[in-house]
Amino acid sequence: MIRLSDRLQVIADQITPGETVCDIGTDHGFLPLYLYERNIASHVILADISSGSLEKARENCEIYYPGIRFDLRLGNGLEVISEGEADTVVIAGMGGILMSEILQADMNKTKSVKKFIFQPRSASGRLRHWLLTSGFEITSDRLVEEGRFICSVITAVPAAKPSDCSFSEDDIRMEIPEYIRDEELADEYIRRRIEMEKRVLSGLSEASEKWTEKTEKTKSDIEYLEGLLCCSANL
Q1: pTM of the model
Q2: How far is CA 87 from CA 70, 135, 162, 171, 187, in A?
Q3: CA-CA distance, 32 to 20, in Å (whole number)?
């Protein structure tokens, strides 16, 4: 039986049984194989832009389920599927900016997908901002630990209209939303970000006066994060 990492398990838990699932950037293919093995997905599509990665997925398909013909597709982003073909699309392990670019490339196809599950390696705030301002609703936003990292798993569905988002894409409240404090890993996640921002601030204090704006923003970000940490401790 296939056992998923905590990160992939959180992703798998967001999938509704009976869906057609496309895993973009499938790499080793463990997530779709898990969904097939447990009869969660009605059909799985394993897709990757890298022929080497797709070959690894193909090899794992043969190891775990020899003789079963899986749907493996080589290609870039959503180009591998047709409009309305997939109920759920998983995009994990790449930057949030690249994820939004993949979605932006064909909005008709993007809006034909009923649900997206993202696990960005960076720029999660920019991804959230793009989703909200491009006609999506974030229905789940989880924190999960893998190795020495804590990462976000964001689930989004098409909304009736774009959100009136009052924050910019680089605002700390997009990167670490207030509601994240409800997550079990929130305190550690916020502390790590405070430490990072303080290192940035220390470097800026030694720089020239032209960094004044950046210095003030970093101080403001730290104040916001410390406030979140205080609120989380009081819950």
Answers
A1: 0.94
A2: 18, 17, 21, 31, 34
A3: 10
